[in-house]
Amino acid sequence: SARPRLDLLVLPGDGIGPEVVREGVLLLRELEPSLPAELHIREGAIGGAAVDEVGDPLPADTLSAALSAGAVFLGAVGGPRWENLPAERRPEQGLLRLRKEMRVFANLRPLRLPPELSFLSPLRLEILGEGGLDVLIVRELVGGIYFGEPRGIFVEGGERVAVDTLRYREEEIARVVDVAFRIARTQGKPLASVDKANVLASSRLWREVVEAKRAEYPDVPVRHVLVDAFAMDLVRRPTAYGVVVTENLFGDILSDLGGALVGSLGLLPSASLSEGGPHLYEPVHGSAPDIAGQGIANPAGMLLTVAMFLRHTLAAEDAASAVEAAVFATIARGRVTPDLAEACRRAHASGRCPAPEVLSTAEFGAAVREEVLRRV
Ligand code: NAI
Ligand code: MG
């Protein structure tokens, strides 16, 4: 066939990472014949798994394969087994380095619950509104306090002092803000820029850069919100927000809050976009050591991440929407992994959800594939 070839690098990682990645790959293989590119999938080592194998959480061959791939999928890294390693050999450092080397500066984290799944949210129906939850967090991913120098624990005057540095160059702010503006324009949504400009110098520069960008997007309504006020607002009136752009650490914390708003961290996908290089696709959750190895992890976040790949790397919008609809329809039928069972049981008691049928990771993945095939 004349389809172009696309090389995918899949990095399962640790804990539930391999369990959810397996479902993502099965879904990709199922969709492959109808996609605009021929997918060639290979696996690589990262995180604790790579530390065990070769003593390095980001082996050189994994990094070079990632940089030359058409797209990279990642499960999750980390776990108690590797917690006491020196900082540079911890699994999480491997992931931070991968993001940095791939220059995937714009991390898109949609918080979405369609109205028929409102019962999963701890928020009341009248707060969620008729459209359900639909907020996109755009998190800066390769700058800020996770990377700034100097950093470390030093001895000063006989006691230990810890230092982290929150540092942003103008250009690092401008490029992620530009992505957020572009998406807000395309989706016809307002943009909120979240910062701490009343205290932090980096946030004052952030605000100035947003103000300057505004001229290029006069059609996009913009406001600045302080991060503490935003945390409260996101819970009290999420419908006030469309696209939200923020720096690395704030975005990390706020998207876990988002996980609580949709009912499970296991539901959240993400896409980390570079400029010109391959994008990195990973669910928002971590390696979940508390449930790893039991076959009960929710793969929905990974499957929705596959949808983001279809949209952002392949521009296969129909396939992307079909995957999203299939994931949401499966859950709406009450076919859920254990993390959603309790919410479903409560909703069933009030007639908002069919009696839950609790599925394993693999069963949920298969149910979604079956639904998708009916839609593509
Ligand atoms: P976590 O996201 O792994 O788990 C938090 C809670 O959510 C746990 O109770 C877990 O069981 C639940 N959960 C997460 N994903 C789920 C899923 N798909 N289905 C059902 N339940 C799910 O965060 P935690 O426990 O703080 O961190 C565990 C390890 O993961 C640590 O080593 C941490 O550093 C690492 N981590 C890695 C990330 C990544 O690879 N991107 C992101 C966050 C944490
Ligand atoms: Mg986090």
Observed structural traits:
single chain, 376 residues, alpha/beta, Isopropylmalate Dehydrogenase, ten-stranded mixed sheet, two-stranded antiparallel ribbon, 14 strands, 42% helix, 20% strand, binds 1,4-dihydronicotinamide adenine dinucleotide, binds magnesium ion
Structural topology:
Layout: E1 5-13, H1 17-31, E2 38-43, H2 47-54, H3 60-68, E3 71-76, H4 91-102, E4 106-113, H5 125-128, E5 133-140, E6 148-156, E7 159-165, H6 170-187, E8 191-195, H7 201-213, E9 222-226, H8 227-236, E10 243-246, H9 248-262, E11 271-273, E12 279-281, H10 300-312, H11 317-332, E13 335-336, H12 338-349, E14 357-358, H13 361-373
Parallel strand pairs: 1-2, 1-3, 3-12, 5-10, 8-9, 8-10, 13-14
Antiparallel strand pairs: 4-5, 4-11, 6-7, 11-12
The structure holds 1,4-dihydronicotinamide adenine dinucleotide (NAI) and magnesium ion.
Give an account of the 3D structure.
The chain has 376 residues and is of the alpha/beta class. The two termini are 20 Å apart. The chain has 13 helices and 14 strands. The protein folds into 2 domains: 1-108 and 266-376, Isopropylmalate Dehydrogenase (3-Layer(aba) Sandwich), CATH 3.40.718.10; 122-262, Isopropylmalate Dehydrogenase (3-Layer(aba) Sandwich), CATH 3.40.718.10. The longest helix is centred in the middle third of the chain and has 18 residues, at 170-187. 42% of the residues lie in helices and 20% in strands. Magnesium ion binds at residues 252, 256.
